[in-house]
Amino acid sequence: MIQILFFFFAAIAVGAALNVLVQKHVLYSALSLILMLTAVSVLFILLQADFLAVINVIVYAGAIMVLFVFVIMLLNLPEDEDGADRLRWLKFIGIPLGLFFLVLVVTTLWNLEANPGTQPQLVGSPAAIGQSLFTDFVLPFEVTSLLILIALMGAVVFAKRDL
Fold this sequence. Notes:
Layout: H1 2-22, H2 26-46, H3 50-75, H4 83-86, H5 90-110, H6 126-135, H7 138-162
């Protein structure tokens, strides 16, 4: 049952990603990207990486994509009518290249031998990630927080200058 759900949501993710590429309207492309990120989050849940799934939904499908949709709606971009004509020659490269990678993935999966090993219980849990962040990676964590603080202060300065 888990395998069926995995392939179902993987097909949704791939279909939504392809829809991002072929969609003429930019807003529909962004909505397809939100669907793809949500399907990837479900795949993370099926792989028992709950923390990654929550972060993916909150950060990417939530905050960043809502910002993208807001900017697209604010700019009111028209449909791309001549985009297919400009990229018509790409299918002569894309189709053989896509088939090559499909054959490569299928042969790799066909020759792959599964070796189920034992994993520690706390590999992807929020407790293990927090423990690792505040013990082994405390310096990069603090440097990242300082960079985010500097970027936030710069954004406030630029926003005040425009007002």
